[in-house]
Structures are given as structure tokens and as C-alpha cells.
Amino acid sequence: MQFIKTTIIGGVVFLVPVGIIVLVIVQVGEVMLIVAEPMADLVEVESIGGIAVANLIAAVILIAICFLAGLLARTGPAKRMVRSLETKVLQGIPGYSLLKGFTNSFSPDKTAQMKPVLVSRGYTSRIGLEVERTADDRVVVYFPGSPNAWSGVIEIVAAERVEHLEGSIGSVFAHAEGLGRGTGALFGN
Which stretches within the chain are classed as H helix? Predict the structure, then answer.
């Protein structure tokens, strides 16, 4: 019964942020389509490769807006605003921190992402994700649950017990969700 309960909760924690993102993208896409349709009327071709020109224009506009938002996000005032918003609002959304860490894994800024680690526990070891380091150089580690990687535990461990692994957040999640299968890939085997 506990397995079913935690799996359902993990599914909700995963689906709520993803659902919100999909909903926002769909809504923005609809607005972009309204803007793009008059532009498409100016082009004499109705479709390219079976795709309506208005849809292509809307997609290009949406990509351009995302690019401009990305440029804006790199500025100091925007970073401060996002930090404030995260602290006051977004941290309260279930799964936000984990989702943010996962998306940060695609960022070239390696300091912003969680890192796969192996934590020594005497005769055994456990695979997790380094979230951050404390002021006294201890390590905050998220250990994904199995088979639901979105449901796990957080521990603070001594830095000397932590070894960084090759791989990505996705590979750690796959390891947990696959009940340990493919673990050798995390060690370069």
C-alpha cells in the first residue's frame, strides 16, 4: 500500500510542474498563432511540407521570444528577480527544485547543476545527486527513490564520503527507475 501511495504522490509531483509548463506553452502557442495568421496571409504559399505557414511563423516567433527571454535572463536584475521569485513562491511548488536541477543539467554553467555522486556508507555505497555544499563543507545529497526517482530522501554527509561520478542527472534517474540496471554506465563500464 505504501508503494502505491508514494508512487501516486511521485507521479503528481512530476506531473504538476510538467503540466503547468505544457499549459503555458499551449496558451502562448495559441496567442502566437493569432499573431502569425495575418503574417501568413501575406505569403502566397499556404503550407510547406504539409505544415501550415501560420504554424511555422508562430513557431519561429515563439523560438525568437524564448531566445530573447534567455538573453534577458542573463542580466543582473533579471537574475535577482528570479532568485526572489524562487525563494518566495516557486520553492513551495512540489518538485520545483528537482525539476530546476534537471533542466539546469542542460546548462553550460556547471556550477548551477546537481552532480551525480557516489556516497560511501561503510561497506556499501549509494548513488545520489549533490545538491549543494554547506558553509562547513558538508554535502547536501538527494537520493532518488526506486522505482520512482522523483520520490527520495535528502541527507547531509561529510565531503570525504562523496565521490563525483561521470554521467548526468538523467542517468541517475534511469538507474533508480530501472532498479539498478545499467549502473556500470555511471562508472564508465
Answer: 2-42, 53-73, 76-88, 96-104, 169-177
